[in-house]
Amino acid sequence: MRPRTLTRDIPWGIPAPFPGAEGKVIYVWFDAVLGYVSAAIEYYKNKEDPEEWREFWFNKDAKTIFFIGKDNIPFHTIILPALLLGTGEDYNLPWNVSTTEFLQIKEQKLSKSQRIGIFVDEALELFPPDYWRFFLMATRPETKDLDFTWELFLEKINADLNDTFGNFVHRTLTFINSQFNGEIPQAGELDEDAKRILDWVREKVQAVAGLIEECKLQAAANMVISLSRIGNQYLNEKEPWNLIKKDKAKAATIFYVSTQIVKALAITSAPFVPFAAGEIWKTLNLEGSVHEQKWSEALEPLTAGHKIGKPKPLFRKIQEDPQQLEEKLETVRDKLTRNA
């Protein structure tokens, strides 16, 4: 343990109550961790249910998980528990503190004051939120620092989201619309390949759930992509667009299996690309929101004859090169600065 500064010489903040600290205020991270409690209290006070916050902090079935950068580990693993214990009440202590290494840009630490980085308003002017959400989780720096580059961003969006995930969903649902009147086809007898694929799907769905529970979000996001990669490989190997000319029943079975993968993808991708997952669910013509489903629903089969909608591309391939993207960012930044 090394010494930590608890006060600052600034004119605003909570006055330091320590002898000899007159004129100083408590520095942010020592008292800020208590904001987790006070925020819950204020939230439920505004919801006119002022005691509900206790379900989070005193109900022993509740688990609190904190997602932070590595520089904040001491505040969440030592200071926050110490403050909660110091109250003399039986607060729930942090159940898990999931930390990451640093995400940097051009080998520099991100900085709001120095405008080093890509900020939310700028990011959303450039690309949809699903692109950023997926990228940040699929490259989450869980074991070492990561330097953001446009090359890496292009690889994850174009190769993984567009060419693998989006391509599999779109080609499957488009073919069902054009060849099966927009209805989930009737499966014939499943051959060994089909059984193996469905077994893999079950394993992947369970594995993604386990990784999320362990807060291994990078592996979980990439495993969702591997699930769609399995679907693409299955279609490429079976070539149902050729088979349908000779044996429509066998082609129907292949697309029946493929639609089960699409449904599994809708639910397993929801934590990572929530808007795209919602579009898949809507296109599958299923009730409610994908975000209201239990995880087990991912393995509940779509029934033959179920009518689906016409799919739209979930993503678009980014055509700009890294230099063009950097120039585009500067243009967006200038525009936002002028309009501020």
What does this protein structure show overall?
- The protein has a single domain, classed as Isoleucyl-tRNA Synthetase, Domain 1, CATH 1.10.730.
- It has 13 helices and seven strands.
- It has helices spanning 28-32, 35-46, 54-57, 73-86, 120-126, 129-138, 150-179, 192-213, 217-238, 240-243, 248-268, 274-283, 322-339, and strands spanning 7-8, 25-26, 65-69, 96-100, 103-105, 108-109, 146-148.
- The strands form three sheets. It has a three-stranded mixed β-sheet. It has a two-stranded antiparallel sheet with strand order 1-2. Strands 3-4 form a two-stranded parallel sheet.
- β3, α4 and β4 (96-100) form a beta-alpha-beta unit.
- Span between termini: 43 Å
- Cα Rg: 25 Å
Largest sheet: 3 strands, mixed
The CATH H-level homologous superfamily: Isoleucyl-tRNA Synthetase, Domain 1
Helix content: 40-55%
State the helix count.
Answer: 13
The CATH class label is: Mainly Alpha
* CATH fold type: Isoleucyl-tRNA Synthetase, Domain 1
Number of strands: 7
Q: What's the structural domain tally?
A: 1
- Beta percentage is 5-15%
Assign the structural class, choosing from mainly alpha, mainly beta, alpha/beta, alpha+beta, or little secondary structure: mainly alpha
Identify the strand order in the major beta sheet. Answer: 6-5-7
* Dominant shape: globular
Which regions are unreliable across 5 or more consecutive residues at pLDDT < 50?
none
CATH architecture label? Orthogonal Bundle
N to C succession of SSEs: EEHHHEHEEEHHEHHHHHHH
Q: What's the average pLDDT?
A: 94
